[in-house]
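Journal club side-thread
Mid-discussion, someone asked how the predicted structure for our own chain would compare to the paper's figures. Pasting it here so we can look after the session.
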Amino acid sequence: MKKNLLHLLILISSLLFGIKEVNAVSESYVTHEWIPNFFNHKVVEGKPTKNFAQLAYVYAGGTLAYCIEPGVTLYPGNYDYSSDMDILNLSEEDKKYLELVGVYGYNYPGHQTVKYYAATQELIWEKFGLKSIYWTTKADGGDIIDLSNEKRIIKELINQHDSVPSFYEEKIILNYKEETKLYDTNKVLENYQLESYDKSVTLEGNELKVDTSEIKNIKIKLKKKNMDEGVSLVYTKEGSQNVAFFKLSSPKYLELNFEIIGKEIEIEKIDEDSKKPIQGVNFAIYDSTTNEEVYNGVTDVNGILRIPNLYKGDFYIIEKKSADGYIIDNSKYYFKIGEDDNNSKICISNKKIVVPNTGVSRSQAADIICILLIISLIGSIVYEKVKK
């Protein structure tokens, strides 16, 4: 009882506190439960043999486990156990494969059938040298039990373990204020759940919705669901079948990075005649659909006004205030932002205010002014004499 309690405490600690190894050898009880009408037979050099073994559910410390020594009898009793997978003499690749067999085999949602348990056991045996067996309903004869479908599904899930959504990129660029629904045609997204939350992102099945109403970067973390995480353990006993169960040592995460960007256009203001840039012209940009002002600014020394963070749609430009010495332009200039439009330039020219030419030179004007002053003076003198 104390040994079983110790085993249970170690397993709970590994899940709650992230303990990755139980290298110190401990003891735990191993037993089995025979499964009726389910027998395996070896195939040697392509020919079936009379050797058989009945399938049994194996329990190690109360956890469902699997035989790892084909052809060796299992005797119930206390077994030593350890998380040191090196005692299996397997490559790191094979150890990882067995973890995934443990995850996607019998323990995976919807796989709790005898056929899935047998298929999981067979895939584990393959890594320990048993390459070819078949299953029947009797020890000697009976009907053939076909596990090909169960084995195929487990292998497909293993092959898809590292698959990413069809829209996955290191950085996913999205357009500002554009309704964004990303559908995963690889159909792996439904196997994940949001681990780190951002209110801009919602996940439903294989579809990810992103709110792009704000220019910003978004990072989210997804965690794969239904992963049997924990510590894999090997149980050994001299003179008996060794058994083990395999769990995923590291959770499966997927990070998605989004960058929401707007389009940019450039207004260039020039003198209509000289083509020189005009500084200080005030422009406003409006949404053609709502007539809402979306930007307001003034041209710089180069006659340029850059308008960032525009979204796809129709717009128009109005000149609110012209530069000194220029006639204000009351026209509306319409433009459209499409999928590929970015860094577009709109050139607008202005005319200078022109003072009318009378055809009189400066010297002539001065003479006329002098004559007018003299006439005015004489008029004043005459007026004073008449009054007297």
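Post-session note: The mean pLDDT is 87.
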